[in-house]
Amino acid sequence: MKRLAAFVIRFRYWFLAGTLLLVLASAIMFPFVRINYDFTKYLPEDMGTKQALKVMEEEFGIMGQASIMIENITIDRAINLKQTLINNNDGILDILWLDTFVEPDILLEFENVFLSDATMQEYFADIPGVNQFYKNRKVLFQVVFKNGDYSDVTDQTITDIREYLNKLDYKYAMAGSAVSTYHARHATEKEVFNITIFVLPIFLVILFIFTTSFLEPFLFIIVIGAAVVINMGTNLIFGEISFFTHSTATLLQFAVSMDYAIFLLHRYHEEKEHNKGDNVTALKNALSKSYVSILSSSLTTVAGFAALLFMRYSIGIDLALVMIKGVLLSIVCVFVFMPSLILLFDKGIEKTRHRLFAPKLLRLSDKAFRYRIIVPIIAVMLVYPTYIYQNNNKFLYGNSAMESGEGSEAAVEIERIEKEFGNTNMIVLLLPHVKTDGVINIEETKKAEFRLIDDIKLRLKNLNIKANVQSYYQMTDISTYLPKLNLPETPETKRIEEAFLAWLESEGYGRPEDWIKDSIPPHMEAQLLSPNYSRIIISVQTSSESEEAFNAVRTIKASADELAYQNYYLLGVTPSVMEIKEVVESDFVKVNLLSIIAVLIILIFSFKSLILPFILVFVIELSIWINMSIPNLMNQPLIFIGYMIVSSIQLGATIDYAILLTGRYLDNRKSMNKKRAMMRSIVNSGNSILTSSLIMASAGFILALISSVEGVSAIGSLIGRGALLSALLVLIFLPQLLYFFDPWISKMTMNIKFWEGNGQKP
Question: What is the per-residue pLDDT for 384?
Answer without folding.
Answer: 94
